[in-house]
Design a protein that fits this description.
heterodimer, A: about 80 residues, mainly alpha, B: about 375 residues, alpha+beta, five-stranded mixed β-sheet, five-stranded antiparallel β-sheet, about 15% helix, about 30% strand
Amino acid sequence: APSLLAASPRTSRNNYRLAQAYLDKYYTKKGGPQIGEMVARGGNSTVKKIKELQEFFGLRVTGKLDRATMDVIKRPRCGVPDVAN
Amino acid sequence: YRLFPGEPKWKKNTLTYRISKYTPSMTPAEVDRAMEMALRAWSSAVPLNFVRVNAGEADIMISFETGDHGDSYPFDGPRGTLAHAFAPGEGLGGDTHFDNAEKWTMGTNGFNLFTVAAHEFGHALGLAHSTDPSALMYPTYKYQNPYGFRLPKDDVKGIQALYGPRRAFPGKPTAPHGPPHNPSIPDLCDSNLSFDAVTMLGKELLLFRDRIFWRRQVHLMSGIRPSTITSSFPQLMSNVDAAYEVAERGTAYFFKGPHYWITRGFQMQGPPRTIYDFGFPRYVQRIDAAVYLKDAQKTLFFVGDEYYSYDERKRKMEKDYPKSTEEEFSGVNGQIDAAVELNGYIYFFSGPKAYKYDTEKEDVVSVLKSSSWIGC
C-alpha cells in the first residue's frame, strides 16, 4: 500500500481504504444482474484497477493514488460500475 | 458513449414507470415532476414514450432506498454513491434506485433529482457510463438545470444508436418518398393545432379536427393515422362540435349544431336527434365540448364559458346549471374545445393547449401541447 500513496501515513491509510472500496465497487467484476459495465479486461490487481480508473477519467495513468485520482474518488457519483460486472 | 455488453434495449416503444417509494426531502409532486422531466429528456431524442402507472409492476420501478435494499448493491449513506439503475430487461431490469440518505432537491441546495434521474434513466434505457466529461452519462455528479435542459450530443448519439432518432411525426411525409401532400389535411404538426372534439370509442381515442380525425391507442403513440371523417362517419361530414362515449352502454354521442347522433362503435344508430332531448334551453344552439365522468355517471357539456351537468342514470339535466367553467375548473384557461376522461383525469383541450385536470386535487397537474396527442 505505501508505494501507492503520496501522503502522510494516517491520511494515506484512509485514502487507501477509500480507494480500495471505490475500486471494489466500480472497477471489479461481479456476478448478479447487469447494473452498468463496459467490456472488462483480464484479471485486475489494485494497480491495474487504478490505471483503469485513471484511463476512464482521462487522468495521467500512473497506477498511484495521486491527488487528482483521489479527487475523482471523492466525488459523489452514480452507483453503476464503470467496468463490466 | 458506451452501451452495455450485449447491448440490451427495450423491445417496445412505450414503457411504463412507477414511483413506488418517495423521499422525505422533497414533496411527492416535486419528485413526480423531476422524474417526468428526466424521462422526457430521453423521449425527446428517441421514439420512446413513458406512461406512468400507480400500481402493480412497471417496466421502470423507481424508489428511494436506504443502505442494503436487497439488490446486492447497497447504498453508502450521504454522498458517495447517489443512485443506480439496472440495464433493460425483465424484473429488476430498468429499475432505478435513489439513496434516501442524500438531500434531494429541485434546485442546487442538495443533489438535483432531475440531474441524477436523467442519468440513471440513461442506464435504464441501455447506456453505460461515458468517458466524455460533457456527457450526462459521465459517472460523477454535475448539476444540470432542468429548465431548458438539452441532452448533450454524446448522449444523443448513444441513445439513438439503440433506438434510432425520434421523427417529428411517424406518419409525416418525408421527401421524396412521402405520399403526395393532401391539401385538405392541415399540417399534421402545426403547433397551434386545436381539436374540435375528442372521445374514446371502444379501445381507441378519436381526435377530431375540421374534416379529419386521428385514431390512436391510449397508451401508444405509434400507429396514429389521420382519416377523413366522411370515410367513417358519412353523416357527420366535418367539424364535429363535441363527442363522448358511455363505455358501459357501448354507445357514443356526436354533436353538430343543434343535432346529435348515437353510434355503437362506428355504426350510426338511426337519424340525427335534437340536443333539446338532453334538456338544454332553446337558446343553446350548439355544444362546444362534452365529457362523460365514469364514476359520477354524469356528462358535462361545455357551452361558451359555462357548463351543464347531465345525469346519465336519470337521463335528465341536473338543476342549478349552467355554472361558470372557470370557477369550477381552476387553472383551465380559455373556452373548452374538447374534453375526455382518461385514467381518472379530465383532459381539457383549449386551443393549442391540453390541460390535465385532477378532480381530487381540483387543479390542473400538467399542461401539454394539444398536438402532442397525435405524436408531435
